[in-house]
Amino acid sequence: MRFGAWVVEGELGRGGMGVVYAAVHSESGERRALKVIHAPAGADEEVVRFSREVRVCMALHHPHVVRVMGVERTGPENGALPMEAEPCCLVLELCEGGSLADRVRRDGPLPVRQALEFFDGVLAGLGHVHQEHGFVHRDIKPHNILLAFGSDGRTTAKLADFGLAKAYDSAGLSGLTRTGAVMGTPAFMPRAQLINYKYATPEVDVWSTAASLYHVLTGSTPRNLPPGWDPWLAVATSPVVPAGKRGVSLPPGLGEVLDHALSDEPDGGFQTAEALRAALNGS
Question: Is position 35 annotated in a ligand binding site?
Fold first, then answer.
């Protein structure tokens, strides 16, 4: 399959916004990720608005944030999609190591040292985007933390989809138009975000990053989410289980930092990514 000059090599994943492919440019030979969003018929105005907002995301330059290279309107040359579903293609930095969710699912919880190294970078990127650009991600989770292989052989963790989900929703492409609609993933969402999604502040991203680290270290989510339970009700009413009770050996100081970071109290937790990063470095 081709999208304009991009030749698809394989599918990387699927999500609420569309399908992600690994692709190579037929002329330059550059390898990138393509996120293909199937806009509904008659959504030209929404796609233009989305494209405009995506270009704001292209200003995010940090080694621990997945780069957005561009946005194109181009259909597949082999006619694999119906004409009324002409896609919008986001060209993104390719992270061939998959996500942290994939890694934990395949190999189990990560060693403490490796996990902390990954999240030191993630928090550096998160702090940069909060402070320099004022973006709030609102859906940080292990699935949105991708692993890239460097030329030096090192693996780097990078935040993905920063600002894209909000742009997608605000353009009307998600179909969620009601006031107060909640976006995000309950398993990694703080109670404060559920209560006041529209005015989410950087603190919700800090909480979700701590929740992602909790999962990477323990293999569990911070709250118990039994089958059959309403996950949103669990966010609203269920307490966070202390990290030390998940049956995984963690340094005491690290468990204490995680428990503090995942507080649901109005004055609890860490207010900034840099504060959590410093606490983890000192644990």
Answer: yes
